[in-house]
Fold:
Amino acid sequence: MRDIAVFTGSAHPELADEVCAHLGVPLSPSRVSRFANDCLEVQLQANCRQRDVFLIQPLVAPVQEHLVELLLMCDAARGASAGRITVVMPHYAYARSDKKDAPRISIGGRLVADLMVSAGAGRVLAMTLHSPQVHGFFSVPVDHLHALRELAAHFRQYDLTRTTVVSPALGNAKEAAAFARMIGAQVAAGAKQRFADDRVSISSVIGEVAGRDVIVLDDEIAKGSTVLELLERLRELGPRSIRVACTHGLFAAGALKRLSEQPDVLEIVCTNTVPVPAQERTEKLRVLSIAPALAEAVRRIHNGESVSALFDAPSSE
Structure:
């Protein structure tokens, strides 16, 4: 593949390597350094002039460091006369700051989107944004992928004749319903109320759960408080088995350990949109790769082909 250059910051170089392997192009080198006054500096160490440049960087902890790295990479590519700059952002952490639900509160999702565009991003490739409206925060084209196909391919190894996909909240029920259709399962949803970032209440579960194999599906798991609360409600209804799945396995503050210690949780499935350190992984964790999907989307963007034809329509498998 000619006239393409792929760079990555320090957030998730393993994913960038895998994407490049599927593309059949080398990962171009870059250098991130720090001045004595703690400011970052980025140098892209390959030719960008009139090339189609892709910058792979999920916003994961430390989010602010990786965000500034990404902005500096955009600026460096623009200053090097890149033909087009596409930000490949498998996880957009600021997507959770998507509405004004309290007085005098910032909307970080929109602000950070503006920063990326101001820094030089001409296109964004994202995976499973926290809410649909975040797509509209960007003033440049956004290709919004999902990982439902990868998750469905994994769960098809099981007997799904008595399976219910459960969304922890009504806001995520549409995605859960789409996933349920892909695997031929029923769908249910929890009635959730959030009081703080790590304090939620789920009063009931709407749908058939008793005696069924449950797959709890969420877009991301951070501290795991929502899933743990949902498990309490599900136990009251008597499911036959429980598995947990998400796209972004952030697993902050020991969440993966707490979920793995739940005796009735058979499996925890996530994708590699964000890195999960090897020392934190447990026997119940399964990490699926979304690198092939990202690589195919990058290839189609570069060639001017349809990306929505691949990822928007429900699977007919």
Q: What stands out?
A: DSSP finds nine helices and 14 strands in the chain. The radius of gyration is 20 Å.
